[in-house]
């Protein structure tokens, strides 16, 4: 049996606004409430569960808030792709670089210092031994450093397929 909210109000109340067809004011108000509830129910259910996604409900793509990067990229062949992942020295940037390397992409890690970048590269190579990782020095807070990075990348004649900007975490 369908709930009252499963039907548009004109099916429940008839065309005039009440079950008896008399159009009484309280029934008209109830009709409007049912119409509103039905529209809200339709909007929520058709929008991939707008209220459900933060709690792990999967959308039309099959992925949700709890999907991992490895799940999302399963079956992806990135062997012919070159990616620059900023912010790859920690957090979501590091995870993005790891998964891109896992899928075969050549990943360039811009790091504020070569030392910090090489530490990240080392830890990622431990996790993905076949990875193609390169570290280049770039300090995002310095426009001249960004320009030098761009010049250096352009001179390598590599084709850039993916530019992922993962902002660095701010420490207070």
From TrEMBL:
Residues spanning the membrane: none
Protein name (database record): Short-chain dehydrogenase TIC 32, chloroplastic
Organism classification: Eukaryota, Viridiplantae, Streptophyta, Embryophyta, Tracheophyta
Stored Gene3D superfamilies: NAD(P)-binding Rossmann-like Domain
Pfam family of the protein (one): adh_short
């Amino acid at each position: 049996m369908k709930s009252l909210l499963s039907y548009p109000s004109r099916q429940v109340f008839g065309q005039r606004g009440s079950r008896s067809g008399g159009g009484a004011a309280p029934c008209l108000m109830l009709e409007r409430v049912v119409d509103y509830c039905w529209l809200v129910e339709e909007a929520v259910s058709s929008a991939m569960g707008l209220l459900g996604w933060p709690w792990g409900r999967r959308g039309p793509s099959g992925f949700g808030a709890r999907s991992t990067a490895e799940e999302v990229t399963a079956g992806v062949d990135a062997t012919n792709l070159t990616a620059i992942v900023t912010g790859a020295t920690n957090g979501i940037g590091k995870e993005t670089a790891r998964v891109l390397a896992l899928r075969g992409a050549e990943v360039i890690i811009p790091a504020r210092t070569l030392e910090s970048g090489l530490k990240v590269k080392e830890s990622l190579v431990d996790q993905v031994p076949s990875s193609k990782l390169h570290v280049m020095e770039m300090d995002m807070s310095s426009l001249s450093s960004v320009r030098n990075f761009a010049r250096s990348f352009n001179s390598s004649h590599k084709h850039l397929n993916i530019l992922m900007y993962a902002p660095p975490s701010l420490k207070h």
